Amino acid sequence: MLQRLVSHASLTEDDVVLEVGPGFGFLTQFIAGKCKKVIAVEVDPQLVSFLRTQHNLQNVDLIEGDILKVTLPSFNKVVSAPPYSISSPLIFRLLEQQFDWAVLILQKEFAERLAASVGTKDYGRLTVNVYYRADVELLDVVPRTMFYPPPDVDSMMVRLTPRAPPFPVDDEKTFFELVRTLFTQRNKKVRNGLISFLHQHKITGKEAVELADSTIYSKKRVRELAPEDFGILANELSRKF
After folding, report:
1. Residues 182, 193: contact at Cβ < 8 Å?
2. What is the distance between the alpha carbons of residues 66 and 71, in angstroms, rounded to a whole number?
3. For strand 77-80 and strand 60-64, is the pairing parallel, antiparallel, or unpaired?
4. Distance CA 37, CA 60 (A)
5. pLDDT tens track, the chain, 241 positions
């Protein structure tokens, strides 16, 4: 499994690799033998102490702290099997950084949400927000039996490749807020979610209803909107505020 994970990352001797949650350091050692440097971020003080005493790897920089809060040095790739509980905030934290690509082991259900097709049950806010920032490739399924103790769910290797947004957005704050608000009513018509969105911006009553009805896609279901459609809708709204 470790060989497959590292193979998907196409590591070279010039790479500086970020690992999140090295645990007992098995993956850390494997990565360290194939790259210039590993930056390993671990929040558990006991594991940090263990790693410092048990492993003598010259090209591993161990950082004690929360990956969602620490200041990260520069790196160009990510290889990690992070805690499932931080998957969503971790991905958005990573996508704030500059790097070539990340290869991660994630919960299979979560991974499928990242790459879900428009209109499917897995398609949602996470899909749209990640698509805006990166390409997602689903790689290998990792059965739960590959871990000890085995978790309750299967996992999947995923590659994220950051890129420029594939469609124009005039105001990202409006875009992300709109996506969040509309997906709270994913099975309803867009106009319903738009009225809620407009209420948040102090536009109420008849004015909110008329504005919602006049916008593009108002009669479609939220789940039927492609990521690009959210961009078009956000741009239309931002010009009307």
Report:
1. yes
2. 10
3. unpaired
4. 6
5. 888 999 999 999 999 999 999 999 999 999 999 999 999 999 999 999 999 988 777 899 999 999 999 999 999 999 999 999 999 999 999 999 999 999 999 999 999 999 999 999 999 999 999 999 999 999 999 887 776 677 788 999 999 999 999 999 999 999 999 999 999 999 999 999 999 999 999 989 999 999 999 999 999 999 999 999 999 999 999 887 6
Please, what are the domains in the chain? 2-162 (3.40.50.150), 172-240 (1.10.8.100)
Which of these, 47, 39, 49, lies nearest to 70 by C-alpha position?
Answer: 39
Do residues 188 and 138 touch, judged by C-beta distance below 8 A?
no
Using omega within 30 degrees of 0 as the cis cutoff, is the peptide bond preceding 82 cis? no
DSSP 86: G
